[in-house]
Amino acid sequence: MTQPINEQQSAVALAYDGEQAPKIVAKGHGELAAEILQTAKEHGVLVHEDEELVKVLQRIELGDSIPKELFIIIAELIAFSYVLQGKFPDEWHNIHQRIDLKS
Known about the structure:
alpha+beta; protein transport; 103 residues; name from scop; transport; T3SS_substrate_exporter; globular; 2 strands
């Protein structure tokens, strides 16, 4: 089932290889934004909705890396998406068992 296209809708897609800063790999408004979101959902990519962040990311040229001013927010989103998918770094060896919640 497809949703009606919101001409005001914007979307930005980032790619992150774990080595370099994330890059803008797709961006668009209206119908193109809807296609970006639909493709992401079809491929199991988590989508974060943040109108203000999208406005900032829309200013970055396609293929460019995000600026260092956005590293923290994007890193937090990537880390959170990994946790939601049950992915943890090897060196975390059951970190949740190391936290003393009784203190």
